Amino acid sequence: MSSAGNKFVAGACLLLGLAVVLCPSDRSISRAESAPEWLSAAGRADLGHFGDGSGAVVLGNWTDFSVDAAGKFVETERSAMRVLNRRAAEHYLQAVGFENNDTKVTSIQTWSISASGHITQSGKKDLINEADYPDFAVFSDDRVKKIIIPGAEDGALVGYEIVTQGHIPIKGERFRMEQKIPIRMSELRVSVPSGSLRWFLNHPDRVQVVSQSATGAVFRVENRPAIPDEEDAPPMSSIAAEVTVNYDPKGLAALQSWEDAGHDYHVLFDNGEKPEGEIAKQVEALSAGKAGELGRVESLYTYVSRQIRYVAIEIGIGGYQPHQAADVFKNKYGDCKDKANLLISMLGKIGIRAYPALVGTRGDVEADPKVPTLSTFDHMIVALPVSPSLRPAVEGFPAYDAKAQILWIDPTSEADPLGQLPDMDQGVFGLIAYPDHGDLRQIPEAPLDLNGSQFTAHVRLREDGTGTAEVELKYLGAANTRAHYFYRGRSQNDILKVFESRVTDFVNAARFQRASIAGVEDSAQQIQENYSFQGDFSVASSGGSWFFQPLFLSGIAIPERGPRPRKLPLDVGTPERIRGEYRLELPPGMRVESLPAKTSIQSEFGDMEVEYSANANVLVATEILSFTQSRIPPEKYPAFRDFVNSCLRVRQLRLRAVKATL
C-alpha cells in the first residue's frame, strides 16, 4: 500500500491503519495464461546500473486515489519490481495492507514472472490474516492481510494489484513516494470530483507535480535511490518523500493549515457530555487538603496517570476519537486519548481549562510544520495554558514552555512526575486543538541539568591491583523514568543478575557483592542505586608497579561511533549530562607516578571536563560529560564522531601506580 498515513503510523494510541484483503482464486496457479500488460511493459525497461547492490528495484508504482461526493474513497495500487537478490529483497516481496470496519479491500492479486518466462499467480491459499500491531493494541478492528509473492526468485519480475475502498474519518491521506529500495518511477493520481482538494509535499525538491487542478493532481518521482537503512535515524515519514492529500468532498473546507487541523480535530474530540457526577466526587476527594492550584493539578495528574490503566481500544472511530470521560473513569482503563480526555474533564471540575494536544512521537511519525495534516500523529497528551497565578510554581518544570505559557502533560506515562515528559514527547511538534483553531508548537526538551545521571565511586586498592569498589548512582529526568520502567515488575533475583552482569564490564575477575535500590516504589522519586563489587583493577603490571584505569565506569558512556559516514541524521536522544566522582585509595606506600593535567574538550555537540587531584595515596578524579544536541545532521556526523571518540579516549586513560619514594 502507498497510503503511508495508515500503513506506517504505528505507536502510542492514535490513527492506526487501513486496508488489504480478498484474493480471487482458490489456489496458486503455477502457469497462468498471462500476466497483466502493465507488469509485462514495466519488465521491458532497461535498468542499466540503476539499483546495483540492492535486493530489488521498483520498476513502476502507480496509485489512483479518488473520493466521491459521499466521502467514499477507492484506491488502486499497482507495483512492479525486479528481484535482484531474493534473500536481500525478502521484506519487499509481499503485498501487505490493513483493513478495519470502515475500510475493505475488494481485490488483491500478485504475479511473478521468472527469467525463463514462467508465470506464477497467487491464490486464495496464499492469503495470510494477522492482527494489526498484535503486541500493542489490545482491542482493535484493524487487521493485516498479506500475500508473500509466490515464485519470486533471483531475476524474476514480480507485481501486485490492490483495490481498496472505504471512508477515512479525518478526510486526509499520505502517500509515500520513496522506499528503502530504489524506485525507477512512482506515480500518484488523486481525484476529488466534487468539493475541494489540498495537497502538500514534505520534500518538494524530489517530487514532480505533473498536473494539478481544483479537484485533482498527478505527482511523480523518477530514479530515486533507496532510503538508507541506518540506526537511530528519523522516521521514514520524515526522510522519505511523501504527498499529503486533504479533501472535503462536499465543500471548500479541505484542510489547508494547522489552524484548520486543530479546529477539525476538536470537533471530533468534543463528542458530547455524559453525566460526570462520579468524576466530580473523585475530583473533590483528590483535591481536598491539597496546597494551592499546583497541588490540585498534581493530584489529578497522578490519579489519571497511575490509577487509570493503559489499554488501547481502536475500534472504528475509536482510533481517532476518545471515549467519554465518564466511561473511562468507570472502567478505570483507556488509551492515550481516553486518559487525556479524562484529565481534561477533571481539570475542568476545578476551574482549569486544558486542551487535547496531538503528538507525532519522536522517531515514529514526527509532524512536519510545513505539512498540515491529522494523519501524522500517533499520540495525544494535554496542553494546559498556565494562568499568571500558577506560573511561578511551574517555571522550573522542563515541560513548561514559558514563551507559549503552556504546561505539557502526558497522563499516559506512569513514571514521569508532573512537569516532566517522556523522551518520545520531547523536542517534537504537538498540535493543540482549541475549539476554534489549532496551534502547532514544538514541545521543549529537558535542560541538561535535569536529565542524565550522577555517580560516586569509592575504590580501595591492594598492592597487587585488586580491590573493592562502592558505587552510588542517581538518575535524573528521562533517565530516571527509564530506570523506573526498567525496575518495574522485576524480581529481586532478576535485579541481582543485572548487577552481576554489569560489574563484569568494569574490572577483570569481577565478583558482585551486594546492591540496594531506593525510590523504585514511587515513580515521583529519584532512583538511587548502591552496589559494591570486588575485582582486579589493574590492566597491566611491570615489576612492583601496575597500571589502572581511574574512570573505570565506562559502561555509563555512550558507545564508540564508527568511521562509516552517514546519509541520514543521527538521533542521539534528549540532551543529558553525566557527572561522576572517583575516589581511589591506593595501598599505603604507593602513589600515582604522574598526575594528568586537566582535560577540557569543547564542541558544538557538548563538552567534557576531567580533573585529577592527589593527596598522599588518595587519587580523586571528577568528570562532567554533556551532550547538548539531540539530532546530528549527516554532514556534521564526522565531527560528532570525533568528539565522542575523543571523550572515550579520555575515559580510557591509564595511570601507573608505583612505590612511593622518600
Q: Mind explaining what this structure looks like?
A:
A hairpin with a 5-residue loop joins strand 4 and strand 5. The chain is an alpha+beta fold and 662 residues long. It is 18% helix and 36% strand. The protein folds into 3 domains: 4-249, Immunoglobulin-like, CATH 2.60.40; 262-444, C8orf32 fold (Roll), CATH 3.10.620; 449-659, Jelly Rolls. The chain starts with a helix and ends with a strand.
Short characterization:
With 662 residues, this protein is of the alpha+beta class. The chain is built from 12 helices and 38 strands. The protein has 3 domains: 4-249, Immunoglobulin-like; 262-444, C8orf32 fold (Roll); 449-659, Jelly Rolls, CATH 2.60.120.1130.
Tell me the count of domains: 3
Distance from N terminus to C terminus (CA atoms, Å) equals 80 Å
Strand content: 35-45%
Class by alpha and beta content: alpha+beta
